[in-house]
Specification:
The complex is a heterodimer of chains A (321) and B (120). With 321 residues, chain A is mainly α. Chain A has 8 helices and 4 strands; from the N terminus they run E-H-H-H-H-E-E-H-H-H-H-E. The chains are: A mainly alpha (321), B alpha+beta (120).
Chain lengths: 321, 120
């Protein structure tokens, strides 16, 4: 049976499972160290949760192709949506393992619903309550991921990108700062506008492309950028800003909602294919439908293999706007 | 894709083996495109059969400290910096201000008490 992914604000079991699951993965050390991952400093064990942080950072550091500095192995190009679907499925499998529940599904945060509130009221959403993700601060001081320097079991950022773009070891609490660089979250009208686009992606297959993928990623329209996905990262702020953004469990709630929007788009336009196909230029290697996607933790999969995730999960509701 | 196709390779043992046996090519953690000589952004376009190349070299500093992460400029002039992947900027100065806000421990306390100009 496949998991059902549910709204974190509507389903108490999904919320509690997610918090418990990521906490267990954060405390699970299977053996890899920072030395295995070429991080500077003395070798230090890396938790299962933190392996996903490293993976995301290295995918972002892998330019596709390496002769340019825009498109990378997980962002700023067509593979953005299938790569993150792959990442979320792998995390979900790990959550199911530590929770001993093969049907446990990642929850999503319907941020566009919160985006309908006045910007000044958005930090008061229930998603930031003590029994959900906790609030903001540097470090955050409320909720299940609050930092206590004297409690080794409290949520700690152990690997993080620095200003030079290097992934380095850290030992501090999680940071968030709501609405410091953008006034408000995306709205339901923003999501609806993305769902009006019937083409998945198009040349130049980058941040300048017209099409659904680039709209969901948040680079277009330029006047509204950062939009959708990018805007949520920027609005939450703090550790959601650098390439090590999976440090914040909110990362997965955000991407689960983007994946839901993609699922809704796929249901709306069943005849619109993933693009580019395999006949596209080798300059797009890593983004074509049958290319291997960058994987740190398992053998690679292709975008084509991620187009139908129904054997892994479904969503309780595809009404996204 | 079927669940069993992926789940067999996602067990703890399989993950540990893949990560610790060096099976994955990791991108280098060397910084920038210039390694002290600045970062070069290359923009290319084709117009009426002509191939256009615009090379721009940036040398970024804050309080004399070089900032050498990957930086680029898209063909529509937006400046982006890899360490802050969800943002682009109309101005490199705006980018640098944002970096100071996001990475406070990398810069320490500022010494200047008044703000200098704007622009890119």
């Amino acid at each position: 049976m496949a998991a059902e992914r549910r709204n974190i604000l509507m389903d108490e079991t999904a919320r509690k499972n997610y918090i418990q699951g990521v906490t267990l993965l954060k405390q699970e050390f299977l053996g890899p160290t920072t030395a295995d991952l070429q991080l500077p400093g003395p070798p230090t064990p890396v938790s299962t949760y933190d392996l996903f942080v490293v993976w995301h950072h290295y995918a972002m550091e892998t330019f596709t192709p390496p002769t340019q500095g825009d498109r990378n192995a997980a962002h700023r190009g067509p593979v953005f949506l299938p790569w993150h679907r792959f990442m979320l499925i792998l995390l979900e499998l790990q959550l199911q393992r530590v929770l001993n529940d093969a049907d446990a599904g990642l929850p999503y945060w319907d941020w566009a619903a919160d985006g309908e509130a006045a910007p000044a009221d958005q930090p008061d959403s229930a998603v930031w309550n003590e029994d959900c993700m906790g609030g903001q601060g540097s470090p955050i001081t409320t909720g299940p991921f609050a930092f206590d320097a004297n409690d080794p079991a409290s949520w700690r950022v152990r690997v993080a990108a620095n200003v030079q773009g290097q992934l380095v070891q850290a030992n501090r609490g999680l940071r968030r700062g709501f609405g410091q660089s953008v006034a408000g979250l995306p709205t339901q009208a923003d999501v609806a506008a993305a769902l009006d686009l019937d083409e998945y992606d198009r040349s130049p297959w980058s941040t300048q492309s017209q099409g659904f993928r680039n709209r969901v990623e948040g680079w277009r329209p330029l006047a509204g950028a950062p939009g959708l996905h990018n805007r949520v990262h920027v609005w939450v702020g703090g550790d959601m800003l650098p390439s090590s953004s999976p440090n914040d469990p909110v990362f997965y709630l955000n991407h689960c909602n983007e994946d839901r929007i993609w699922a809704a788009w796929q249901a709306t336009f069943p005849g619109s294919p993933y693009l580019p196909d395999q006949s596209a230029s080798a300059e797009l290697r890593g983004h074509r439908i049958d290319d291997d996607m960058y994987s740190l933790l398992t053998s690679p999969v292709t975008p084509r293999q991620m187009l139908d995730p129904s054997d892994f999960y479904s969503y309780d509701d595809l009404q996204v706007s | 894709m079927k669940r069993e196709e992926l789940s067999a390779g996602a067990t703890p043992d399989a993950i540990v083996e893949r990560v610790t046996m060096g099976e994955v090519q990791l991108p280098g953690q060397d910084r920038g495109h210039g390694h002290g000589g600045g970062m070069e952004s290359v923009r290319e376009a084709t117009y009426r059969g002509h191939h256009i190349v615009v090379r721009t070299t940036y040398r970024l500093e804050v309080d004399g400290m070089p900032v050498e992460g990957h930086m680029g400029v898209t063909n529509d002039g937006q400046v982006h910096y890899h360490a802050v992947p969800n943002l682009s900027f109309a101005s490199a100065i705006d980018l640098m201000k944002q970096l100071i806000d996001i990475f406070p421990e990398d810069f320490g306390a500022g010494g200047h008490t008044h703000e200098h100009g704007q622009g890119s």
